[in-house]
Amino acid sequence: MAAKGAHITQNIEVRPSIFEVVAADSLNATFYPALKRVANFLASIKPATFGPLLRYYDEVFLVFNWAVQSYYLRYKGGSLSEVFYGLTRTSLRTNRFDQNGQRWSLALLVVAPYLYRKLEAKITQWKEDYENGRVISPEKVRLTQIVPYLKACFECVRLVHYVSYLAGAVPTHSPVLRALNLSLTYQQEEEQSWTFQELLSGRVEPAKLLSSALLRSLELSAFFLQFIEWWQNEANMGDLAKLPTPDAPPGDLNGEKYRGKCPLCLQRWEIATAVSVSGYVYCYRCIVAHLQKESKCPVTGYPASIGDLIRVFDGDDD
């Protein structure tokens, strides 16, 4: 009786708490990096076999995520992470989750993150090319400057939605769900489709049993991936010395151009001195005279002062 009473009490409140909806969002964001970590591990063990998996990981994850999320949206009424927390999507107008809502939800859950990751990779590449002196179009330069601000604006809007949802001012916590005119609510309890007695007597269809086992394994895998993500974060926070050493930044075209000589006088260095903000090496007299006139690195244009100079001791120094 107590369990039944608790079940009734849960269904009276159809509005999930802010902790549940944020946890569902967090779990959904965990799938991509967690599975990529698995792909990295497999590729390190057998590069010839699993190398293509890592090389085309974005596309493989796109297909896998599409298959899983489309099933859950169609038959469970929500994404995998939302169903894991007992939530489902519903229209603010009709209280139903129709096919149009399913299609838009699938596009924003699967396709939009894939396109954004591709755009982010391109922007990172364009930014590195620009900083290394390579020629890129002005449109790409503007895009590298605008996208971070757009991302910050979206995060601010999402934070405002969180606070408004917590205060009860809006029906949904996410600006994406609000744009789709959807909200999250608790799933209705489903009756068990088969019993263990029916299973032992062979009266359960194999397809139904396989489907149920697959769904349970996916939900348990979601919990396992979230645990692995939490465990690794805790390990990294506990001992920063265990973080892998990053690769050295790549050189640029000017580095080859001024190899072994001062970029100002174009002669062999006299008292070699590096500008710490850029790494370029000059003659001490040349760079001091330049910084007294202009407070920036002559090659990169980065802001610099005499306090940023570091003496370099090479093989010719006594």
UniProtKB/TrEMBL annotation:
GO terms for biological process: protein import into peroxisome matrix. Pathway: Protein modification; protein ubiquitination. Pfam families: Pex2_Pex12. It is found in: Peroxisome membrane. GO terms for molecular function: zinc ion binding. It comes from the Eukaryota. GO terms for cellular component: peroxisomal membrane. It is a multi-pass membrane protein. Residues 25-233 form the Pex N-terminal domain. SUPFAM superfamilies: RING/U-box (SSF57850). The keyword Zinc applies. Keywords: Membrane, Metal-binding, Peroxisome, Protein transport, Transmembrane, Transmembrane helix, Transport, Zinc, Zinc-finger. Belongs to the pex2/pex10/pex12 family. Component of a retrotranslocation channel required for peroxisome organization by mediating export of the PEX5 receptor from peroxisomes to the cytosol, thereby promoting PEX5 recycling. PANTHER family: PEROXISOME ASSEMBLY PROTEIN 12, PEROXISOME ASSEMBLY PROTEIN 12 PEROXIN-12. This is Peroxisome assembly protein 12. It comes from Culex pipiens pipiens (Northern house mosquito).
